[in-house]
Amino acid sequence: MKKHNFSAGPCILPKEVMQKASEAVLELDGIGLSLIEISHRSKEFVAIMEKARSLALELLELEGKGYQALFLQGGASMQFLMTAFNLLEKKAGYINTGTWSQKAIKEARLLGEIVEVASSQEQNFNHIPKGYKVPKDLDYLHLTSNNTIYGTQIKEFPETDVPLVCDMSSDIFSRQLDFSKFDLIYAGAQKNMGPAGTTLVVVKEDILGRVSRKIPSMLDYKVHVSKESMFNTPPVFAVYVSMLTLQWLKDLGGIAAIEEINERKANLIYSEIELNPVFSGIAAKEDRSIMNATFNITDDELKDEFDAMCKEAGISGINGHRSVGGYRASMYNALPIESVGVLVDIMSELEKKG
Ligand SMILES: *Cc1c(COP(=O)(O)O)cnc(C)c1O
What we know:
Blueprint: E1 4-5, H1 15-26, H2 43-59, E2 67-72, H3 75-87, E3 91-96, H4 99-108, E4 113-119, E5 141-144, E6 146-147, E7 152-153, E8 164-167, E9 184-188, E10 199-204, H5 221-226, H6 236-252, H7 254-275, E11 279-281, E12 292-297, H8 303-312, E13 315-316, E14 327-330, H9 337-353
Parallel strand pairs: 1-13, 3-4, 3-5, 5-8, 8-9
Antiparallel strand pairs: 2-10, 6-7, 9-10, 11-12, 12-14
């Protein structure tokens, strides 16, 4: 039965990427060996790593602008610590927009003074704080571009001279931004790029080397940059699949092309949520994410029926995060618009029944 995969992460990847990745596990490009049994120093894998790194910079339009792309391990969660280790000398600012921001704050506090510049915690993170002033004396300001759990997304980033660090785990490569505004971007692969196991870090080289602390090698971006993202054995399979997904995106027309599709998917579900009295949106309208749509069912008596209809139609992964409840439809790059159509049809059918 065909499934419609709305999982928040790990999540859906393009079919042809899965196909190619599974072939490479058996044999990589006719070399008689599997992708996962060759040396990471082989010319074949070195070329894969180079391709993945250059595709990332190319898609973000950061080539030749002093940035380096790295494929590291430890998830986005490791970046909560690593960003602070490399960039925090005295004081850093954080915008608290949810669970992931809070976790980033917790790690950074181990290393310096942290100022919560703005927060939407009092409203259970249903919106993005705006109109705040960024103190000038910060080493950096940390933001979370898309709040996977609450379904909110930053549409406008603050104008400031303070270096910007951004967790883009759940919306990287999904919409056009001026990525050169950011000094460091990180994203766990498993939301919009590949399988779990690697994290993309895009860092402007000239912000490195400014802190006085000693940095352990594995946590030091400069070490990873100097070793071309091969300081130790990289997660070869996750890097390969990420490379294939980035190539898929490039062939499709890049971020501009996928953004258009993502906007159409988001419009489809949000207009249904707005028009259909059986459902109500959770996130503030102006801050709604084009990746994760969160909503409640207004009539609890219809919940079992809705769940059964979704199951029947092959819809998978739309339960809300336990801290928010309700539903969450994650519509990452590889989710076809047809899948959103199937969900929306069920929602409107339920209204007729209700
Ligand atoms: C999923 C997610 C994380 C955590 O990623 P891990 O790779 O599991 O550490 C961090 N930030 C955001 C915004 C996420 O969506």
